[in-house]
Amino acid sequence: MSGQEKRLMVMAGGTGGHVFPGLAVAHHLMDQGWQVRWLGTADRMEADLVPKHGIEIDFIQISGLRGKGLKAQMLAPVRIFNAWRQARAIMQRFQPDVVLGMGGYVSGPGGLAAWSLGIPVVLHEQNG
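The structure assignment produced for this chain is given below.
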């Protein structure tokens, strides 16, 4: 790739249906000379799997609400805001040229963080 190396941040987590397609795209772009980082959660499969593929990963704290009770639902706006702040700080450090959302809870606050920084967001929906 000529000129400055392009940077991609992949946002994907939770299940193989999100993570494995994200890894495929990441490897393809790495082969084209892109620098790739991952945004995920520390307690899901991406935490172990992504580094094994030679991709650096950053974590935010976000999870689903189903079955967590009324208190968790009441605190959801605060948790989402905090996750947005975490994702925004990570993106400010990495400065991606584009952010790819492949699914999972991390893609919500991560996508909003990218949008708030003026970073293009590409969403991929592989369910169908």
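Interim note for the steering committee: The mean pLDDT is 91. The chain has one domain: 7-123.
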